[in-house]
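Summary for the steering committee. One of the milestones for this cycle was to obtain a three-dimensional model of the protein with coproporphyrinogen III bound, which we needed before selecting residues for the alanine scan. The sequence and ligand used are listed below.
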Amino acid sequence: MTDSILLKTLRGEATERPPFWFMRQAGRVLPSYMALKEKYSFWQMMKDPKLGAEVTLLPINDLGVDAAILFSDILVIPYAMGMGLEFSDSGPEFEKPLSHFDDPVAQLKPDPSKLQYIYDVIDEIMATKPAHIPLIGFCGAPLTVLCYMLQGIGRQIEFPEAIRFIYRNKKATKQLIDAIVELSIIYAQKQHEHGIQVFQLFETHAGLIPNELYNELFMPAVEKIGKAVRALGIPFIYFPKGMGVGLDKITPEICDFVSIDWQVPIEVARKLVDPGVGLQGNLDPRILLSSQDVIEKQLERYIEFGQKNQNWIFNLGHGFLPTIPYENARFMADWVRNADWKR
Ligand code: CP3
């Protein structure tokens, strides 16, 4: 079996180039995915093992990435807690957002068996993927998941009702966080039992509240999930989008690698984050809307960083956008694979 360049980097070994994969690499820019989307709904693609595995593995051929990430969504956890979930053209929507209830904690009915279909997808991926391409599992981090649960509507990214609830109901917020953590840990353990080799925690909305409040209410929950994942012997990557200078609190106790968004230059992030934690990131995906010579200039800026830093995974600062041309995504992937990284 050829060893995986991603796993090598995560283990702290030297490689001739940085490994790369991209957030939202399956579900947004690939023509092969768009063709499947014409025929099947998102739920169908997530729930059918053959389809789910096929979509998960598309970016290996179409982009040449060094890892696959499970084709699923962070909102499957609220779904498994009994919240009705639809994905429409305007984004994900819950039947009854928790902020509509006087006692939201009482509404939760966690049922781990409602995640079983995902493990069937993982089994199919493990049976069909190339040996040198590891599978990344994931779930959403507590603040991001809680925001969707309370607010209910996917594209209202300010989450006003959710934030109002958090500021007014600290005790209930903590209880909701505990419930999310408990099911997320079972979910991560099961993903591992079925074969995932790396785990990423998506805290897309870390920037919604001050770092101080985040560290008080949410960071202990992140640490709990991270501890449970690392006890399984697999690397734990944490993506706290919008955390900014709060990155200076990211230590090896919290995660193995931290994924950096496009707001903080990667060299600055390197200075903020504890040297014992590796970095992932952080090209602004919107650069990929420009021409290829502009894209190339932005990519060239990473050579010096990549030369000096072996504990780095190339990725985007946030997921691909549906408006990005596939040719530009492919151009970036080929460039990263073929550049002279001077290592
Ligand atoms: O490459 C992949 O797409 C991998 C699978 C994946 C999806 N969602 C599929 C998806 C992953 C890793 C996610 C994570 C996710 N989901 C996050 C964290 C990362 C990020 O992008 O910030 C968040 C915040 C969500 C919640 C979510 N799910 C939103 C806001 C939306 C609507 C907008 C959109 O199109 O992404 C979804 C739906 C969703 N998740 C789709 C896909 C392929 C689109 C479904 C459709 O086509 O109807």
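Key point for the committee: Residues 24-27, 37, 42, 69, 71-75, 87, 91-92, 138, 144, 154, 202, 204, 319 surround coproporphyrinogen III (CB under 6 Å).
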